[in-house]
Amino acid sequence: MKGITILGSTGSIGISTLDVISRHSNDYSVIALTANTNVEALLEQCLIYKPEFAVMVDADSAARLEQELKNKASDVKVLTGTDGLLEVVKSDNVDYVMAAIVGAAGLLPSLAAAKAGKRVLLANKESLVMSGKLFMDTVRDNNAELLPIDSEHNAIFQCMPTDFNQGLNKVGINKILLTASGGPFRTISLDRLSSVTPDQACAHPNWDMGKKISVDSATMMNKGLEIIEACWLFHADPDNIEVVIHPQSIIHSLVEYDDGSVLAQLGNPDMRTPIAYGLAWPERINSGVEKLDLFHVSQLNFERPDHERFPCLRLAREAMNNGGTSSAILNAANEIAVNEFLQQRIKFTDIAKVIETVLENVTQTNADSIEVILAADRDAREYAMNTIKDIAA
Ligand code: NAD
Ligand code: MG
């Protein structure tokens, strides 16, 4: 029996994780569930899954949850704040941590899971984008296991030899082909992009996801973040990674070897597959995902990405090449810009402009400590908000 903490249990990945776990209740026991403010959803999950702990990061929400649980005679212990998250990550009876908080808020608890030597199921790509080297060093130094949950990275992991840590050229790999659906605006012209709405941006053709990653998919910053994520996970350079638009989202990514072989992982676009893989690795368990019917799919198409309409791809590559805190600055500017777009305070096409301005103006330093990374994150957020005020003025 493995004890598991699910960070961000009320989100899209959190819910899919609970779905997989509920199919294997003899193998996994839910130790802690966490959310930010959604009391109703976390209450319902507590009553069904009966964890030892529930964490609501927001203190008022935690107080409400505690009262509601008391009313239902439940003995789930309620914690709050980042301290609460850190406690339920480190706990001795926790073996696995699903890191599925969205955005920079996931950094400290995901890193704490690595520090505590847990198996980290990493969905929260932003934490790796922000702290790349520090995160990977922490995993290595504490004998943690890092299993990528992002579908592309999970696919790449499945197509890699087990000794890929030596470096791609040592294991005969030429490049990684990172697939992208192209998002809801794959075919829309540049002049129409400036007037698209948040609802249109969040209507992803193949995946049902949280709002932030949906907008990231629409700008293709999601793929930009994933280039950075893949560099850290697989010891690659941005030049080793080619983005391939594949609108059907059936091939989740590919690895090209020196002998001309290309290995790919295919499946229906359902996050329960990579989640089940991460939970059971190196074994395989049923995920509840419908089997792939190639005759129904019938066609697989591929296109090159358009950098003019999707400048975020270039921005992410540049940030990774610049190194240090550049990726943390990119990530913070993106989070602010996406939120302002969702609040309808800036246009869709302003998102990339804000990020570019922030990258040009916030000084990049080395990213050797968590303090430096968090300071870069704060500076970039402040600069992004000021840039947005200028745009609005
Ligand atoms: P979501 O918005 O559906 O859920 C986010 C979860 O994080 C919720 O439980 C929420 O309560 C919690 N949360 C939000 N803000 C928080 C804060 N400040 N402090 C603590 N908790 C907070 O997001 P999602 O789509 O499930 O994505 C989660 C992560 O997984 C993201 O990093 C995303 O990039 C990654 N991811 C998601 C998918 C997908 O299919 N949804 C695929 C690949 C990667
Ligand atoms: Mg992905």
Please describe what this structure looks like:
There is one protein chain. The protein is built from 17 helices and eleven strands. The longest helix is centred in the C-terminal third of the chain and has 23 residues, at 370-392. The chain is globular and about 55 Å long. α2 (39-49) links the parallel β2 (28-35) and β3 (53-56). The protein folds into three domains: 2-148, Rossmann fold (3-Layer(aba) Sandwich); 156-297, no CATH class; 323-392, RNA polymerase sigma factor, region 2, helix turn helix motif (Rna Polymerase Sigma Factor, Chain: A, Orthogonal Bundle), CATH 1.10.1740.10. The protein is of the alpha/beta class and 393 residues long. A seven-stranded parallel sheet has the order 4-3-2-1-5-6-7, with helices on both faces. It has a four-stranded mixed sheet with strand order 9-8-10-11, covered by helices on one side. It has helices spanning 12-22, 39-49, 59-71, 81-90, 107-115, 125-141, 151-159, 190-193, 198-202, 211-219, 221-234, 272-280, 294-297, 312-322, 326-342, 350-361, 370-392, and strands spanning 2-7, 28-35, 53-56, 77-80, 96-99, 119-122, 145-148, 173-180, 241-245, 251-257, 262-266. α2 crosses α3 (59-71), α5 (107-115) runs parallel beside α6 and α14 runs antiparallel to α15 (326-342). The model has no long low-confidence stretch (mean pLDDT 97). The protein starts with a strand and ends with a helix. The structure holds nicotinamide-adenine-dinucleotide and magnesium ion (MG). Residues 8-14, 35-36, 38, 57, 100-102, 105, 123-126, 150, 207, 209-210, 213, 271 line the site of nicotinamide-adenine-dinucleotide (NAD).
